[in-house]
Design the sequence.
């Protein structure tokens, strides 16, 4: 019997705006900031306070929704989602329910079987909750996100409201995924998108992007959906892929054994590499949504939508498509660049600033330069070597002024000192030596110094020429034009052979 | 016992100082508030300091532009004042000191007003008698055995008893107008969205407005002119020009051209006959002063009560969810987190508050939402439309404020529904968002004040004031003062 998983995703994206969704408190890094330092009476839910919508958050949400091809509701409604928990200071979360900001978008992902369209059901605005740290009786502290209940060992819990009221965007897909790989591909595209749009760092580990898959499994060919399970605590792409794969396997095993899957919310346990039950269907809340009376309907004018649309940058999948079509990059290469906007921009700028060609520029940007960036913990946006300077370096190599090996050394220098390639080459006398007479004398000198090796060459051990080549290059301090040296060495060895 | 405009005049002329005025108020409060219990918190020292400051400012240029400079005012204890306790008449906020000041209070302070303290209220403004206060009821200055009305009973009684010339209240379903009527003072419920709710502890967010009590329409207009206006901190305040009500001081203005509608649905069986007679007489008086009177109909009036008790309680169930003992207020300890929530809320909220939270929670529950909350919203639209249609025919609607005069304390103790019926004539204005003005138009046989209500178009408080002011120039009901037997 074959089975088919059916998966839909809810993704929460914290928007890194100047201030929170409904008050003037700054949005701070909730992992590193001192607890309860970005809190005011409004986000702490003091009686008498009222929310006011942050226009920048709406702007960010519009960027994402429009980039996803959604239809924007010119009038959307905020609603109260009611439930009790110490991390929601008002006893309700302001969200959107019946009339969300945007509907019906789509995103195209690459799968092993080719392109696939994932439909976006809705995009809406809401506010984040605070953060709880449960301290166990034995003194161990554990941070839990959202509604995870304190265990029986909990001695006390600490509330940090820095994150309470941070603008959140919720993006809900239709149940269009059929594998963990598809889920990952979507998540990576979405991460790239929010980074492109300056909405968020896309950092899953910090929880600024939280992906919650809803999974059910049915027999292949059936149209009715199986029982749905939601997975939480997926704090990396790897966890996402593994968690989904784990649940699919678990469901199939239950169905194979003739059992039924229980409707519940499960959490992913990174250490055990398994899911555990967090909340059963019986514990599900009745959120008693109703329109938020403190906020008038959110009106988005056509002019606002147009302005956002006009100011959208070229999107990751557009760059990806263009790099494949225009530059003949492989899909993997194109996505490798496109998923980081600055990498893509850098590559293209370096390509356009010189005449070294796609392959060379790609190899240097994603090879030597990327290793330097990784080693120094920098990114393309903070790269000390500009794309134009890199192109200038590549030009020196293309013109034969320096060789590839020297090029790598020079790039390292450029990265360290910020000097231009030409300056470093001139300063250190690194210009490649192509002078035939000089190189000829170097070769003759080397052969005279190593009569034994020359003898073995003559005896038929032709690979010794490689060793001799290395000796000549060393004599030249690495600056010799390798093509000229190679040709001269072969010539002299042949001459000597002939004269014998 | 000075009215606000009298106090203003004497202060401006330098005939009294603010310190003298405030001291006199404090003395009267010390003598009589033991019997009335209008105040939950009195800041006597702070008020005297503010009075001295006001007396100094009077001699400066800045002082000339402060319309309430040196005038003592009381604030209903559901409005926040930084550093001053705010209980909302509830045990769940006992000891809570808010870290910020309500916008309307800030505006009064900026205009030079002196805050004497916080007045009693039904717990979270839920009630029509001030008996639901966790700190004991307020008594009606006209008859200490009777209720002052509610929920802003403390503010109404404070003005009626001559403790302060004006006080702020809040009105969600009649909580300014009904106590104004019971206490024989003038009380305004402005248009929804006219004044900031920032710092008003929410009961029914789509209905709550900040109102004012004073001895006359002219006095109330001065205070209202100061505290109304759009507030960037309250997204429901409307972008309309601020109201600055200037009333004719001469008693010559004619009411000609003003059309008064008398809604037949407000003169029904169950209305105390003396109330109906006094209100009809007042309307007759306005006709004599030039107004054009005609009968009108607000056909959905009978649904206002159930609609109100679904919408207000639904909103309240969410608004009061924040009182969980986690961040402020008292916390009752328990075995588990849920235990703490249940115990804190179970023990610290009073009966009426818990009743309304349960009603509202039920009205919003899955499977019941459409039949209750959803349906109530539809009917609310019909009620609003009633008013729109009537205001195509007339400029104001005139009717009683409440079916009866002040009832004895404890009269509705075991019958919450009878208490809810006290508000049947005031609820529609909140549901429609229109302004309402209550003022005295006579006394019943027991010597208790009778109030009349004028309702007007959205943001047309000016016409209500103009009408009531002209009426008060021609009559003396508003000048009557209670004799308080201590």
Sequence:
């Amino acid at each position: 019997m074959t089975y088919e998983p059916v998966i839909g995703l809810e993704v929460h994206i914290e928007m890194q705006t100047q201030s929170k969704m409904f008050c003037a408190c700054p949005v701070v890094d909730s992992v590193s900031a001192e607890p309860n330092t970005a809190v005011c009476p409004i986000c702490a839910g003091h009686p008498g306070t009222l929310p006011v919508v942050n226009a920048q958050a709406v702007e960010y949400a519009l960027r994402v929704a429009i980039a996803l091809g959604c239809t924007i509701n010119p009038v959307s409604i905020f609603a109260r989602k009611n439930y009790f928990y110490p991390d929601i200071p008002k006893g309700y979360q302001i969200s959107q329910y019946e009339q969300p900001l945007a509907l019906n978008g789509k995103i195209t992902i690459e799968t092993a079987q080719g392109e696939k369209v994932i439909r976006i059901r809705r995009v809406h605005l809401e506010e984040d909750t605070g953060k709880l740290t449960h301290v166990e009786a034995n003194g161990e502290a554990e941070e839990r996100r959202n509604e995870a209940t304190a265990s029986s060992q909990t001695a006390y819990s600490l509330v940090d409201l820095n994150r309470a009221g941070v603008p959140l965007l919720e993006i809900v897909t239709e149940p269009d995924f059929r594998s963990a790989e598809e889920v990952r591909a979507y998540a990576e595209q979405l991460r790239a998108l929010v980074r492109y749009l300056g909405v968020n760092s896309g950092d899953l580990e910090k929880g600024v992007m939280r992906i919650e898959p809803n999974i059910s499994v049915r027999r292949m060919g059936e149209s009715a959906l199986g029982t749905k399970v939601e997975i939480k605590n997926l704090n990396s792409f790897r966890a996402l892929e593994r968690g989904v794969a784990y649940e699919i396997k678990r469901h199939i095993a239950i169905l194979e054994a003739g059992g039924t899957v229980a409707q519940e919310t499960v959490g992913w346990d990174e250490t055990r590499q398994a899911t555990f039950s967090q909340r059963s269907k019986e514990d599900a809340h009745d959120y008693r949504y109703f329109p938020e009376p403190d906020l008038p309907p959110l009106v988005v004018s056509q002019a606002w939508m147009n302005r956002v649309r006009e100011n959208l940058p070229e999107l990751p999948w557009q760059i990806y498509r263009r790099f494949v079509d225009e530059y003949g990059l492989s899909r993997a290469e194109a996505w490798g660049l496109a998923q980081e906007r600055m990498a893509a921009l850098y590559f293209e700028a370096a390509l356009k600033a010189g005449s070294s060609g796609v392959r060379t520029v790609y190899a240097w940007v994603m090879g030597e330069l990327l290793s330097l960036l990784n080693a120094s913990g920098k990114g393309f946006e903070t790269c000390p070597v500009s794309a134009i300077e890199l192109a200038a370096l590549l030009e020196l190599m293309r013109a034969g002024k320096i060789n590839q090996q020297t090029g790598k050394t020079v790039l390292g220098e450029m990265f360290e000192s910020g000097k231009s390639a030409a300056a470093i080459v001139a300063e250190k006398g690194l210009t490649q030596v192509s002078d035939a007479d000089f190189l000829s004398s170097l070769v003759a000198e080397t052969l005279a110094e190593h009569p034994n090796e020359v003898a073995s060459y003559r005896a038929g051990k032709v690979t010794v020429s490689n060793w001799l080549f290395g000796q000549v290059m060393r004599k030249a301090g690495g600056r010799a034009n390798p093509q000229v040296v190679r040709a001269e060495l072969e010539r002299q060895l042949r001459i000597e052979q002939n004269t014998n | 016992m000075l009215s606000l405009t009298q106090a203003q005049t004497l202060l401006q002329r330098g005939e009294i100082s603010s310190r003298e005025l405030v001291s006199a108020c404090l003395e009267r409060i010390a003598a009589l508030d033991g019997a009335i219990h209008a105040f939950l918190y009195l800041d006597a020292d702070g008020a005297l300091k503010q009075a001295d400051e006001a007396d100094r400012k009077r001699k400066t240029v800045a002082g000339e532009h402060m319309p309430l400079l040196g005038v003592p005012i009381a604030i209903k204890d559901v409005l926040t004042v930084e550093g001053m306790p705010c209980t909302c008449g509830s045990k769940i906020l006992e000891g809570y000191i808010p870290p910020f000041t309500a916008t309307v209070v800030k505006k009064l302070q900026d205009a030079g007003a002196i805050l004497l303290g916080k007045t009693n209220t039904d717990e979270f403004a839920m009630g029509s008698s001030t008996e639901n206060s966790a700190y004991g009821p307020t008594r009606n200055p006209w008859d200490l055995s009777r209720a002052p009305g509610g929920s802003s009973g403390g503010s109404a009684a404070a003005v009626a008893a001559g403790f302060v010339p004006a006080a702020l209240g809040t009105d969600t379903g009649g909580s300014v107008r009904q106590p104004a009527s019971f206490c024989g003072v003038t009380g305004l419920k402005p248009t929804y969205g006219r004044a900031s709710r920032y710092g008003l502890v929410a009961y029914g967010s789509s209905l709550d407005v900040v109102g004012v009590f004073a001895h006359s329409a002219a006095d109330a207009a001065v205070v209202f002119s100061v505290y109304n206006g759009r507030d960037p901190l309250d997204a429901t305040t409307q972008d309309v020009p601020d109201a600055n009500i200037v009333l004719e001081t001469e008693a010559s203005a004619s009411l000609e051209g003003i059309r008064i509608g008398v809604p037949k649905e407000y003169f029904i069986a169950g209305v105390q006959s003396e109330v109906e007679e006094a209100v009809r007489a007042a309307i007759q008086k306005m006709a004599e002063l030039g107004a054009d009177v005609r009968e009108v109909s607000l056909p959905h009036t009978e649904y206002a009560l159930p609609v109100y008790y679904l919408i207000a309680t639904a909103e309240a169930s969410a608004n009061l969810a924040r009182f969980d003992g986690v961040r402020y207020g008292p916390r009752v300890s328990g075995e588990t987190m849920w235990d703490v929530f249940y115990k804190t809320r179970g023990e610290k909220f009073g009966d009426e508050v818990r009743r309304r939270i349960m009603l509202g929670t039920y009205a919003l529950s899955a499977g019941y939402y459409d039949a209750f909350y959803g349906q109530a919203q539809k009917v609310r639209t019909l009620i609003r439309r009633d008013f729109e249609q009537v205001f195509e025919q007339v400029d104001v609607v005139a009717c009683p404020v409440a079916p009866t005069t002040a009832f004895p304390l404890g009269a509705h103790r075991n019958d919450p529904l009878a208490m809810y019926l006290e508000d049947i004539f005031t609820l529609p204005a909140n549901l429609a968002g229109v302004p309402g003005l209550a003022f005295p138009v006579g006394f019943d046989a027991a010597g208790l004040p009778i109030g009349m209500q004028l309702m007007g178009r959205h943001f047309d408080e000016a016409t209500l004031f103009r009408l009531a002011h002209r009426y008060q120039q021609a009559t003396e009901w508003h000048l009557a003062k209670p004799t308080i037997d201590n």
Remarks:
- Chain A has three domains: 3-128+160-309, 314-428, 436-499.
- Chain A touches chain B at residues 41, 44-53, 80, 82, 84, 86, 89-92, 150, 157, 159, 286, 288-290, 293-296 (CB under 8 Å).
- The mean pLDDT of chain A is 90.
- The first helix of chain A runs from residue 55 to 67.
